[in-house]
Amino acid sequence: MDILELPVTSEGSRYVLVIEDYFSKFVNLYALLDQTAHSVAQCLFEDYILLHGIPETVHSDQGRQFEAEIIQRLCTLLDIDKTRTAPYNPKSDGMVERFNRTLIDQLAKSLLSCGGEWDNYLKQVAFAYNTTVHASTGYTPYYLIHGREARVPVDVLVPKQAVPSDLPLSHADFVSAMRDRLEVAFANTRQNAAVAHEKQKLYHDTSTRHQPYLTGDLVWLHNPREDRKKLAPHWRGPFKVLAVLDSEGVTGHVYRIGDLLSDGAPSQVVHYDRLKPYTLGLIPVPSSGVRRCPTLDASSRLGDEVTEVMEAGSSGTVSRAGRAVRPPGWFKNFVSYY
After folding, report:
1. Which CATH number applies to 2-159: 3.30.420.10, 3.30.1390.10, 3.20.20.100, 1.10.443.10?
2. Where's the Integrase catalytic domain (predicted)?
3. Closest Cα partner for 3 from 13, 12, 86?
4. If one looks up domain 218-277 in CATH, what number appears?
């Protein structure tokens, strides 16, 4: 489950609530005027749950609308296991994030060829996606949900095939035949999904060098908020690894870390991709309680060396070309002393 923001339409629609089933890949799209927790909860219950039933698990990012009390209360009342991604790690919800890109592409093509506004084509794009064979499952999402293929507009143009003579004559026979078809389809879907998963994992691991951290290691933490600021520090730290968490039976991907520079800061749960080893050494804690970075000592020595060069440079040095090299007098105003 995810929220996608698009340009505001004349009807006031600005957001799309995307809900996709992980097994069948069946997607549901709902246009929203706002992304408040109340609007999301109302749409989730009235438009999705009342049509498809109560899901066992709902997975989303850590957006405020998904972590609000009303969503937590709804999941508690309906016995829904609410899970969430790690902060600033969209790959934890990669299936929906990948569909968002498909949705934007298809809406852009529809608007270019037919005009209008995006909320007029939302249901059509969802229907086209659900009636297309998915590469990971080998079936259309519509078939895995309804047990039959949808009748699409092309069926109107193509002559209808003859009705099979072995159709079930009673409701019980129909249910039994559909159950048999779905059992075969579900088994093939699981097998195809496992093969697709291994292929995607192979592509991902070719450019990944995973070296898990241990409890007590010092790490840098990437700060995505500063990515757009060219001169801002993109890494913060050092942080200490407090615990290695278990994510679906796999360890070494999610960690709980604590900030060494702030005693009162709460611990954070972050993904491995946002961390890198801290290589500057330990940070000493003076008796005054003020933490100093060891690089300041090196900077102090560097400042002393620059001062000595400036003081000894009054007589100047001789370069290879035989010219006297002296630092400018105004350079003294720009030397930092520690």
Report:
1. 3.30.420.10
2. 1-149
3. 13
4. 2.30.30
